[in-house]
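## Example pair
The file below holds two records. Each record gives the amino-acid sequence first, followed by its C-alpha cell line.
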Amino acid sequence: MKLFDRRLRPAGDGNKKEKSRVRLLLILAVAALVVLCIFLFGRGKNKTYADYEIVQQVELGEDRTIRYKAYDGGYISYGRDGAAAYNAQGGQRWNIAYTMKNPVVAVCDTYAVVADRGGKQFYIVNGQGTSSRFELAEKISVVSIASQGVTAVMTTGDERDHIYLYEPASQETLVDIMTVTKSSGFPLALAISQDGRKLVTSYVAFDAGSCLSWVTFYNFGDVGQNYVDNMVGSYSFEELVPELSFVSDDTAMVCREGGVVFYRITEVPKVLAKEDFTESIKSVFYSKSHTGLVLGAAKDKGGRLVMYRNDKGKKILDMDFADGYSGIYTSGEDIVCYDSGQITIYNLSGKQKFHCVTEKNINEVFPVDNSTRYILIGDETADIIRLKREE
C-alpha cells in the first residue's frame, strides 16, 4: 500500500483550509448567537404580567410629611428632621439628622445631596453614609449632583445670584459663577453631567410682558479652559425653559414650553435633535438611556406619550396616552405610571406589559434590580413586589 506523502501537497495549504473552515464556523456561530439574542430579547420585551405577589413588607413610620426618592435599587426617605437611605429589603444604609424647612433630594448613582430649598444648608452623602455639611451665604434654589459627588448649587440673592460647585469632604469652592439678576435674569434650572465636568443652566428675564430664557453651557474640562468662565455656548428662547438634564456625559436634554432639544457637547454644544409641540408638556422624565414626555391633558382624551433615545435624540414612541397618573418614570425597557390605586407598565414599543388595581394607596413606585421587581411605597408599608406572568 502506498503511503500518503505530505510533501506532494503545497506547504501550509492544509492549514489555510483549516483556518478558513474554523473562521466560517465562528462566523456562523456568532450569527446564530445574534439571532438567538434578538429573538429572546424580543420575547422578553413582549412579556405580559397579570398580577403581582408581595415578597417582603416593611413598616413605615407614622409621619405623613415624609417623602421618598428612588436610590440605588432602594430608596431615600426624607423630611424636615433628617434623611435615611434603605436597600430594597428595608435595611438602613445610612441616616443623617438636620433641621430644614423645605428639604429636596438629588441622586446620582450612590451619591445624594439633601438641600434646604429657600434655606442655606445642604449635605452631600456617599453610599457608605459619610456626609459633608455646607452652609452658604445665599438661599438655595436648585441642586444637582454627579456620580463622584461633585455638587452644583444654584443660589439666589437680592441682586446677585451664584452657581457653586463643591465636592465631598472639602469646604473649598471648586467653581463660583456669579450672575447679576438685572442683566442675566432669574435662575430657573441647572444640571451637572454624571462625570461632573459639564454644566447647563437656565435663566429667564421678563421685559414688557415678554419672556426671554437663556440656556448656557459650561465645560470644566480641558476644552473649557480656553473659554472665559468656562462658558462654551449659549442659546436663547422666547419661552420658559424649566427643565434640564444631562442624560449622558455628552448629551443634554433641554425641555422648553413648546418642545424639547437634545444637545451634544463634546467640546461646544451642538443641536443633536429637536421637536416642537402644539400641546402643552405635562410631565418630563428620563433615565440614562431614554427620555419621555407626556403631552396634552393626561386625564382626558387627546394626550400623547413620546419617548426618545438619549444617545441620538431619536423618537422611538408616539402613542395616545389618556391615563391618569400621579407619577411616571422610565427604567430599563419599561415605562411605569401610577396613581393612588393602580399601576400600569408599558414597554418602549407602547405595549401594555402590566396593569393592576391595588387594594391600598400608592404614593411611589421604584424599580429594584430588574424589570419584574418593584418597591411600592404606601401609607403604612413599603412592599417589594414581583410581577406574575399570565397563565
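Second record, same layout:
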Amino acid sequence: MRRFFILGAVFVFSMAMLMTACKKDEVKNNGNNNGDSDGGGGTAAGYVDLGLPSGTKWKSVNETGGYNGFYTYEEAVSAFGDKLPTKEQLEELKVYCAWEWQNNGGYKVTGTNGNSIVLPAAGYRDCDGNLGGVGSYSHYWSSTSYNSDCAWFLGIHSGGVDVDWLDRCHGYPVRLVQD
C-alpha cells in the first residue's frame, strides 16, 4: 500500500512540474516582445519600462478588438481613456528610443535601459472602412486632440517615425501606456 502511495505522489509531483513548465512556455509566448513573462523589464501586467524620463511604461502588445483591430479616435478614447498615450508621450518615445525597422514590418523600439517593445506596421482602416498598409506602415492614436475633426498619432513606416495629426474617423491600432 505504501508503495502505491509513493508512486502516486511521484506521479502527481511529476504532473505538477510538467504543467508548470508548460505554463512558463505559454507565458513566454504570449505576445510579449522580450520573451519575459512581464514584457522585459515591465510589470506583471505586460507593461515595459523603457527608461523614459517621464517614467511612462508602454504595453508590450497592441490592444485587440475594435473593427479588425482598429479604432477610430472616439472609439479609442471611449474604450481606453487615460491609458492612451498623450502627444507628449509619443514624442518622448520617438526622441529617447532607438528605432530599428524589422523585415516583417514594424519597429523594434529600444529604450535607454535596453528594454524594448515592437510596434508592428499593422496598417489602418480609412474613413470608408477600407483596410490597407499592413506590413508597410501604421498609425497609433494618442489621447490628444488636434481640433474637433483631427487628433495626434504616431506614424511608423520604413522611412521613419512621425508624430502628426489626421482625421478622427480613421481606424488605427492602439498601444496603451502606464504612468
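Notes on the second record: Residues 2-28 form the longest helix (27 residues). The chain has a mean pLDDT of 82.
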